[in-house]
Sequence to fold (759 residues):
Amino acid sequence: TVEVVDSIKKLMPTFRAQLPASVDLNVLYDRSISIRDSVQDVKFTLFLALCLVILVIFLFLRNLSATIIPSLALPISIVGTFAVMYLLDYSLDNLSLMALTLSVGFVVDDAIVMLENIVRHMERGEGVREAALKGSRQIGFTIVSMTLSLAAVFIPVLFMGGILGRLLHEFAVTIGAAILVSGFVSLSLTPMLCSRFLRRHRAEKHGRLFNAFERLHEAMLGAYDWSLQQVLHHRLATMVTLGVLVIATGYVFVTIPKGFLPSEDTGLIFAFTEASQGISFDAMVQHQQALAEIIRQDPNVESFMSLVAGAAGNTGRIPMRLKPRSQRRLSADEVIEELRPKLTTVPGIQVFLQNPPPIRIGGQLTKSQYQYTLQSPDTGELYRYAPIFQAELHELPGFQDVTSDLQLKNPQVNVEIDRDKAAALGVTAHQVEDALYTAYGSRQISTIYAPNNQYRVIMELEPQYQMDPSALSMLYIRSSSGSLVPLNTVARLTRTLGPLSVNHLGQLPSVTISFNLKPGVSLGEAVEIVNTVARATLPSTISTSFQGAAKAFESSMHGLGLLLAMAILVIYIVLGILYESFIHPLTILSGLPSAGVGALLTLMIFRMDLNIYAFVGVIMLVGIVKKNAIMMIDFALEAQRREGKSAADAIYEGCLVRFRPIMMTTMSALMGTLPIALGFGAGGESRRPLGLAVVGGLLFSQVVTLYLTPVFYTYMEAFQGRLANWSSSRRSAADERVPTPELAEEEKLEPIIAGRDVR
Fold:
């Protein structure tokens, strides 16, 4: 888009040079401006997230060389992702940049876990090279598990169809590539850099800042140690908490308001106008000019254009370009709310204001944003019930700008031919139609060719007669005998009201009701209300359906739950393959309910819908939250295998040893997502739900999983032990019941041999 706009702008001076001095050429509608601003702000968000993540690493490790090593994983992962995007011919747009921004928070996780484990070995007194080898060998499987399971979250997205699949495909590929590249960097580059550049701390060089953070870390670890022991002694209460979280997740997911694409300030506002049916062009122009004068006085509007459009003649448009966001105090939605009461003061015309969506999805270009279509082969029934349904929606408190494309009060003149008189006078119906077309149909009768141009010759009545229905009586029709016959001699002229047009959808007569939603009303709530009103108001012979964004929302809502379930299933399969177990993946995924509750409650606290971007954040949480469990469980399994510890002792030690990397990875993910959650800059309000979902889910799940995962692990280990004992006992019982082949053969041969001896 930006490249095309730039090429057009280069041609603008050439166009202006060819225009007369009295004509100026300006750009009114330019989406590239908002795209540039949004991309620029996402770049800044990416840089800010990078700085915050590096700061987190430094505060935890308090060592410059140790901070630089995992920080190098960030630019290398991003550069590697750019290479993948280039090979796939992707462009650098809002979705891909948002994917990179989100990846900043957790692509460094693998490098942090690797570095922290190597540093821990060095703190035990091992040499740098030895610590790098042992630490990387010990933690390698953990990093592979974290990387593959996180990347696997986005596999179902790649196979999604519809508008949702097209929107998220590039996002999923970009973020998946960043994850895989970061995993490779952590397994290869990070251990090498550690062996070359890490140095042991010297006690005499520790400053106040180092000692302060060290005391803080020790205090946090001590508090966690004590609280973890208490939780492990009250395991049943913890499992009850897990059950409550599962129920709460389902309840909040069902009750939270749901939306589709969030509103975004693109710097553009569309005003659609509609006057009374049958209004003259001059009167319509006067109404438009009155509206334009009000808009001209608004300090937030930079430029606009007023035009009377549409075949009906009673509709118009006023596209407005707002001043840059830094030069106005109100957002586009706030400008609309400020303009709406002012524009309603103009009598004789209705105004419908729209903040155009960042991505227009199908549907018709209607006066309001959302469309609901009624269809029936019986136009009489359709036209009778459509106004009733429209009136019902208009009375609902959450709806505004309710209108339709049904216009039945257009003044018209019916020409009814008296066929007996016409036949007697030698006039046919075709001749009557031809005369009417010549008078009112702008018939082209000739073309005048000039040296540099050509001009069409149009035959029609003079304007003062076109607007006067009585002029029909002045028309004459040439009969077959060549004489002129007055139209009113062979036809009866009656004035009535009728439809401006008969709209169709899918070859059936249709009426489209369009509406906007008031602030605070979600699209999900509106869809349920509209369907309820339709069932109560309309007969079964009238079929109904949403169009455009509302239709895409309906279809996507059915697929989002399946997408989440598929993401969890794919992670379970990947973890099951990696751990060769059906039990351990369940333990790793036990923290998902807490993440879901945290994300959804955060959205509700900030009064935001669960829209597409927020749901992407929930999908990401599925991959991020399980990292804590993987780090704890890997250590516990290793301790059980090598040291023969019990499940409770192994997971207890694993929680304490992995406490620092868990805190580091969680804080880095939070810092990487925090700029998105703050929602500043162009387009920041649309990205904010995603950031809030991730931040809220991480904060809540971080606290819960530190206690829930070890308790769940002990229960699952006990269950696995009982299952193994039951399986071995069944095998032993089966072995006792089945005789060996040698004994069976002897039992068959002995009677025969004994018989022979007797004889």
